[in-house]
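User: Hi! Is it possible to get a structure for several chains at once, not just one? Here's what I have:
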Amino acid sequence: MERHGEAELIHADAGPVIRGIEFERNADGTSKGLLTETQRRGLASLATLVTFPPRTIVYREDGELSSIFIAKEGVLKAFRELPSGKRRVAAFLFPGDMFGLAENGRYVNTVQTVTKVVLYQIPSEALAEMLRRDPELQFQFLCKITHELRQGQRHAILIARKDAAGRLAMFLSMLEQNEHAGSQGGWIQLPMSRTDLAEYLGLSLESVSRATSALSRRGIVIFQGGHAARVIDRARFEKLVNAL
Amino acid sequence: MERHGEAELIHADAGPVIRGIEFERNADGTSKGLLTETQRRGLASLATLVTFPPRTIVYREDGELSSIFIAKEGVLKAFRELPSGKRRVAAFLFPGDMFGLAENGRYVNTVQTVTKVVLYQIPSEALAEMLRRDPELQFQFLCKITHELRQGQRHAILIARKDAAGRLAMFLSMLEQNEHAGSQGGWIQLPMSRTDLAEYLGLSLESVSRATSALSRRGIVIFQGGHAARVIDRARFEKLVNAL
DNA sequence: CGTCCGTTTGAGGATCATCAATGTCCGTGG
DNA sequence: CCACGGACATTGATGATCCTCAAACGGACG
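Assistant: Yes, the chains can be modeled jointly so their relative placement is included. Here is the combined structure:
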């Protein structure tokens, strides 16, 4: 595993927060879905805090599994290299997202930073050990993975759309609903490049560009500096998102 | 939840087998990844064996979570209904596949049988309870879900292809590699209809038909009765599968 | 101020969706 | 036994959309 970023060891930290969703609720309606303070601390005791600059590979596909990561700050992308050399971005990763679960001891995606990131790095054996000892914690992981499974399915639905503008609108909508993607004051942050976007949406770079132009020209969304977007015609935006 | 099939209670059964993949291996190279006899029996004690005829809804999206299922025999499809009324098939389910994991207490997909099926039905509370008590078993579930996550990503890659014939070839290749999909003697079983296929591949029904014709005409695959396929030019088939 | 990288815009060709018609299989009923 | 009907699948023609190739544009940085 290559690592160009310097790693710093910090244990005096609030600890990892995993974006889990509840599998069920208690009778009183409170959620069982979040980590307890104890669990957070337990994870923190296993974790090393590492920092990577933008555009850095965290690990490569087929690389040997060594650690699991949880994003603390910043944005990353998980992608696969296709035989032709093209890339398909499977997911963008935001704070609270977990990644690095492998298959047959090897990572299946390559993960690269988009912005500067701070990650919790947890040795996989230690994590596996802890999960075996703490079923409740493991249950949260199960919920988390299940949620990612849904995300993947939504991604497939998005890609199945034929209209580029609709795909883009759907993606913006997903970002907007992700409270960790960093949309502020109605502005949706787009830290990734047009190429990253194209590889996620399954479009060519030019089509993405034309799609942004189209949304802009039709007065549905405005873009600023290429890395922020704002919905200005909510009704038509939602109509476009649901037009499939 | 509707149920048109008659349910039979059988406990004198080998018990559920979940297609899991190993998360890691023991030092001696043996797999930790499969259910122990004890775990199988434990699951079996919770499970009811139910049978459904073809084209039957097992549960609907947004339906209240009640049970988790594991396919024992037969093929099913999991899909979502889109606002336009179109459907997108998220996955086909084969023996050993688990389904019914919900979000916020509601199913996210509708699951319908394709052929006659036999399912293990496990009440979700009982299962959750058992998972909390048996971390090793839960670990297998975690592995299983992780594997399904990969499948979903592969699905997204498939759908991102522009050429219909390539998508179909890729799907056939996936079926071929799935030892539970029932390919025998080089013949790949296709129990689902062309419409099901189209909804999985993100194509129109007609395009699927044209894709099968193209593969047939080019001498790469032959189809029989519309529900079985056989690769006759392996080299060109693989080339097509990897041409993306 | 010039270069480099990322983005935008334009023109032409390829592919799929749609609409419509025809063809095939299979169970039903005369 | 054969004719009919319906569900499913195939084939054809047309239009819309995206991809590719290509060129121009813009900002960041030395």
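The longest helix of chain B spans residues 135-160. The radius of gyration of chain B is 19 Å.

User: Great, thank you!
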